[in-house]
Amino acid sequence: xxxxxxxxxxxxxxxxxxxxxxxxxxxxxxxxxxxxxxxxxxxxxxxxxxxxxxxxxxxxxxxxxxxxxxxxxxxxxxxxxxxxxxxxxxxxxxxxxxxxxxxxxxxxxxxxxxxxxxxxxxxxxxxxxxxxxxxxxxxxxxxxxxxxxxxxxxxxxxxxxxxxxxxxxxxxxxxxxxxxxxxxxxxxxxxxxxxxxxxxxxxxxxxxxxxxxxxxxxxxxxxxxxxxxxxxxxxxxxxxxxxxxxxxxxxxxxxxxxxxxxxxxxxxxxxxxxxxxxxxxxxxxxxxxxxxxxxxxxxxxxxxxxxxxxxxxxxxxxxxxxxxxxxxxxxxxxxxxxxxxxxxxxxxxxxxxxxxxxxxxxxxxxxxxxxxxxxxxxxxxxxxxxxxxxxxxxxxxxxxxxxxxxxxxxxxxxxxxxxxxxxxxxxxxxxxxxxxxxxxxxxxxxxxxxxxxxxxxxxxxxxxxxxxxxxxxxxxxxxxxxxxxxxxxxxxxxxxxxxxxxxxxxxx
Length: 508
What we know:
about 500 residues, about 50% helix, Ppx_GppA_N, hydrolase activity, GppA/Ppx_hydrolase, hydrolase, Exopolyphosphatase
């Protein structure tokens, strides 16, 4: 398959973002990220028309970014426009100019589709525990709110509340201090405009936490981190209120010098902050973690789901991509995965463990990547595998999932998990228990294909009597080397399952 580059364009109210991704067969790599401020919505909202100056800026910047993409060679463009364009009466003029002058065909997406893509881009790339989380993205013209867990979204909405929109509506002079009465009016407008959304969110139960994915939220998180002096990009209410109170009392020049602020946001940050403060107060969400994931990442994930074919998932594609980048033995990786999953399934059927399908998936992915550390060196390659996986940026995985996969890969050979190992100590007690079980299956599966010949076709557990489990090994050839290796794992099996492990080979 010919190599090509795909450019994902996000034309927002405040800025244009571009992600360039290189595709080579099933493999892909993000090779360039660009962001340019255009203020497309500046002066638009009172008249619902994009100004000539803003339109010129947008076309010029997009043309420049298209030329950048085309410099990579054969390419494809995926471009969407959001709030400023969908709300403008003259949006058709902009769309036509972008096509004719910049060479960019743009789709104007709905607010709900924007919210869905933001959820997709963020939720697949952050660590989420159990329960519902709030996802919030504040653009120049709209605010997207999503409530979901790590499996699916349960609520989507797009509100006509944005940092530029509210600044245009309520702030006469962004370069002057903003009075308390004006700020109360902004918050009141936010509350009135979001009342139905807030009622529906409240009906979904308590929120565990939240994620903020826009430039406004990232900048507010930076200022809150400085205020708390902890360096954590997280928004909590008290530091946020203090930051906004100080910013309101400043003129534009002083605001641009505020610790942590992005100077180009100084004129709109107070209005953006009013949205965050009000939504946090009304929903009761305890915090918002800032993330640089967002709409562009959602566009990429959506593109992969639509184009990859064959039933593969984004996670599988990410695993294969990393493995191939590290020149792994693909046939061996698939064999070890299938053997590990067969052991997992039969052990669960025999009542040896009660782990769920999510753990099964992570075991399969870790099995695929267990040997990627050999790309660095055979010596200690299990440690190198841990480093590569834990520092990868695989789409579709949460950071906590990558952490567990990395530890599992580390334990595919040599010693079983021990408290003296730092990587194991860093896990919670619950995670440690899962790793002990899953890593045992991986070590057994690796041993069953230790010669890399595929002589062992499958294996399963069978509990013959209390205190004893037999592994039935189905082989298409000589596998004495593998069976000898299994003897070294009998003690670990006894430690984990409190049973003796025996082996029997059957021809197939």
